[in-house]
Amino acid sequence: MTTISNETAVGDDVDTLQSHPTPGLPVTATVAKPKGKNRITKWLPPLIVFLAIVVVWYLISLFVLNPALRFLLPLPQDIIMKGFIDPLSFNALIVALWQTVIVSMLGLAIAIVIGVAWAVAMSQAKWIERSLFPYAVILQCIPILALVPLIGFWFGYEFQSRVLVCVMIALFPMVNNTLFGLQSVDKGHKELFKLQDASRTTTLLKLSFPAALPAIFAGMRISAGLAVVGAIVGDQFFRRGTPGLGILISNYSSRLQGEQLFATIITAALFGVVIFWLFGLLGRRAVGKWYDFN
Amino acid sequence: MTLTSPAPRATHSTPTDTLLDFRDVEMTFPDGTIALQGVDLVVKRGEFVTVVGPSGCGKSTLLRIASGLEHASHGTAELGTDRIGYVFQDATLLPWRTVTDNVELLAELHGEKKKARAEKAAEAIELVGLKGFEKHLPRALSGGMKMRASLARSLTLDPELFLFDEPFGALDEITRERLNDELIRLFNAKNFAGLFITHSVSEAVYMSTKVVVMSGRPGKIVETFDVPFPQPRDPEIRFTPEYAALVGEVSHALRKGHGHS
Ligand SMILES: Nc1ncnc2c1ncn2[C@@H]1O[C@H](COP(=O)(O)OP(=O)(O)OP(=O)(O)O)[C@@H](O)[C@H]1O
Ligand SMILES: [Mg+2]
């Protein structure tokens, strides 16, 4: 039996590994700083900015605004007390948040499925791409607001129309990113599969699709943020049924309930941030091992 | 030396079967580039043929035609086997697969059962000296280790004809020499025929049973040299006058071919 002994061969190569770091690896790995210090330098600057904003907020609210106009910028503690902790406001907020979560995530899920399917179809032949891609672009270019009355006509002024707005807003990044991912498969990898006479389906499942995953997850994160926007926008037009955050916002603003209005806006913003972070996490979980997903 | 047991002289001492037969092959690309012209080349069982030639003369094109990735625009290219290994210049490992899963890929594409391909992969990984790195992802491997994995992947096909397109060209000289040595050992153990492309004349003479020299574009074969030294090669032959003389002749032919283009 002819075997190459492992110790010598591989041992030497491990040396090579250290003297020539692989380009794909983050350089920080070799110059790791103490973790605690890292965390402070990471969080301190935004924290300082946050405190500055709060201070300016108080200054404006207390000294610039006429007390009669204070609803334009209520004091932070009033927002917390009246907008968040007050049981009535709290209940309304939770119900609306839940509705917005459902509308946006359902819209996002549909957009992901349609978007990936659309892109996969386009990746199969140039003529399919040529026939379908313009419509993805058009979808992206139509001001959704211009379509809203039509959507109301056709699908009513409730839940399904709000979901539809989410889908339409979130679809393009999914289509575009997935297509880009599928098309940027390495030429050498494609030839490797071609040499083994791999079928179209096999190549799609074992090569193109996994290779496109980083792009797909990047698209998902963009689409998730847009779906939240879509849910809020949809709310403002399709006001029947359980209110979402968008309906709550317009209600509070028309009633000049500044504290509740701010609490709702902050909740919507936090929801957007959480979604962005969550889908970033999902992407890192899914492909972070082999791709620097950030 | 990285060999645990001496390589037995394999049974391919009588080259008979023709595994690759190029007759008057010409390659003109759609844009008018003539990459190859009038190439006649035969690779038989037991032969390890290296091709040297200036950059852009059509060496890669030659292998691409041999593998069926490209079709000759004129002439015939016949294969004596469908078990072909092809090692590209890049390792072309799938970055989301571990070493084992990468090495299993080809068998997987041929629909082999999990158990059979796992066995093949384990054997090939051991053969190229990557044992212990089975679970590593490509990004955690050095360039040399990636090429070993790529080589192992091709080995699972148990190829009769092995095509190498400057496989170790991107590596440092010491690593390259060691991998060349190991390749020759595999050649002696596994009984495949090799068609190996390189830039280095001394590498060509040291490794192969035959050296083919190509001219600059359009690539033609200007001269063929038989290498008389016995296999497996003793690394010491590199310091003999016969070796130096042959290297000189091949270099001379290469320079002459280059000048003509
Ligand atoms: N698809 C193609 N279309 C047009 N020209 C091509 C194509 N592929 C290769 N060529 C040309 O054919 C010639 C030979 O290319 P090839 O890659 O075979 O060279 P090579 O000998 O392998 O070079 P190197 O040593 O630099 O790898 C080059 O001039 C190249 O530009
Ligand atoms: Mg080449």
Task: Kindly describe this structure.
Chain B: This is ABC transporter ATP-binding protein. Chain B: Keywords: ATP-binding, Nucleotide-binding, Transport. Chain B: Residues 20-241 form the ABC transporter domain. Chain B: It comes from Subtercola boreus. Chain B: InterPro entries: AAA+_ATPase, ABC_transporter-like_ATP-bd, ABC_transporter-like_CS, ABC_transporter_ATP-bind, P-loop_NTPase. The complex is a heterodimer of chains A (294) and B (261). Chain A has 294 residues and is mainly α. Chain A folds into two domains: 37-73; 77-287, MetI-like fold, CATH 1.10.3720.10. Chain A is built from eleven helices and no strands. In chain A, α4 (87-124) crosses α7, α5 packs across α7 and α9 runs parallel beside α10. Chain A starts with 5 loop residues before the first helix and ends in a 7-residue tail after the last helix. The model of chain A is unreliable at 1-32 (pLDDT under 50). By secondary structure, chain B is α/β, with parallel strands linked by helices. Chain B folds into two domains: 15-83 and 159-257, P-loop containing nucleotide triphosphate hydrolases (Rossmann fold), CATH 3.40.50; 96-158, no CATH class. Chain B is built from seven helices and nine strands, in the order βββαββαααβαβαββα. A six-stranded mixed β-sheet of chain B has the order 5-6-7-3-8-9, with helices on both faces. Chain B has a three-stranded antiparallel β-sheet with strand order 2-1-4, with helices on one face. The radius of gyration of chain B is 18 Å and the shape is globular. At the A-B interface, α1, α8 and α9 of A face α2, α4 and α5 of B. The complex binds adenosine-5'-triphosphate and magnesium ion. Adenosine-5'-triphosphate is lined by residues 29, 31, 33, 35, 53, 55-61, 217 of chain B.
